[in-house]
Amino acid sequence: MTSTGESGISVRLLSRYRVTIALLWTGLALAALVITPLILRTTTPIFQMFWLIVPLISLVRHRDTDRVGFRTPDREQGIRAAIAAGITYGTLLILVEPWSSVYDRLLVLALEGPDPTFAWLVRLDSVGGWVGLALFSGFVTLYSEELFFRGWLLQALNRWTQPRVAVVGQAVVFTIFQSIPVFFFDPLQAVLYLLVYAFGLGVIVGAAAQRTRSIWPGLAVVTVANLVLTAVLV
User: Fold this and answer.
1) What is the rounded CA–CA span in Å between residue 182 and residue 190?
2) Longest dimension (CA), the chain
3) Backbone torsions φ then ψ of 92, nearest 5 degrees
């Protein structure tokens, strides 16, 4: 009886700790999205702010990190999911990017803005710029995407529909939000961007999130992919 009671207390304490971390991380990421454009003189990331505010409201209201995918998966399961998603997405990029230059064009647009994620490379020299890009993308902008689409939205859809439909549904919404750059692409690039770099990515990391009920495998994949592609193309 005592052992069971102590175990229950430990679980509750761990749950409260996760909620605190999630609230702090999300709140600080939102603050960074407000402050960074002022410091680096960039465009204001309205969508990313929205993607943080919605899960933040859910966390404040429900105090449940599982509802936004902010949970630690089993280590082996998480690693397998990240590797599988990384290999799948990496294969698509190798097949598509060299002849289509879709990401290359997207990167040019992001640097011209500059987009706050890539402004670090424009405003800071060498190592500082890359460190800023890595930290800001992983902890703020890409985190906001994964928290909203593969966290809050995916779990919301799971409560209403089948798992596979939920994965596709969040990928469709993700693609809609990501569709603005198509106006700056030629027709073929626009189609590839929507099918591979938006919907394809959404399904791949969405499947990883569905398997683990966690945003972390997907966040690891998109952060690494973003850094590798940028390093190769800049």
Assistant:
1) 5
2) 67
3) -60, -45
Each residue's pLDDT tens digit in the chain (234 positions)?
444 444 445 545 555 689 999 999 999 999 999 999 999 989 888 999 999 999 999 999 999 999 999 998 999 999 999 999 999 999 999 999 999 999 999 999 998 878 999 999 988 877 889 999 999 999 999 999 999 999 999 999 999 999 999 999 999 999 999 999 999 999 999 999 999 999 999 999 999 999 999 999 999 999 999 999 999 988
Q: How far is CA 112 from CA 19, 37, 63, 143, 210, in A?
A: 38, 14, 40, 23, 35
What pTM, to 2 d.p., does this model score?
A: 0.91
**Which residues contact residue 151 at a Cβ distance below 8 angstroms, ignoring those fewer than 6 apart?**
55, 68, 69, 70, 209, 215
Neighbouring CB atoms inside 10 A of 98's CB total: 9
Please report, as a single letter, which amino acid is at residue 26.
T
| 187 token code pair | 């027709």
Q: What DSSP string runs through 27-96?
A: HHHHHHHHHHHHHHT----HHHHHHHHHHHHHHHHH--GGGGT-SPPPHHHHHHHHHHHHHHHHHHHHHH
Classify the phi-psi angles of 223: left when phi > 0, otherwise alpha if psi is within -120 to 50, otherwise beta: alpha
- Residue partners of 120: CB distance under 8 A and separation at least 6: 40, 128, 129, 130, 131, 132, 133, 136
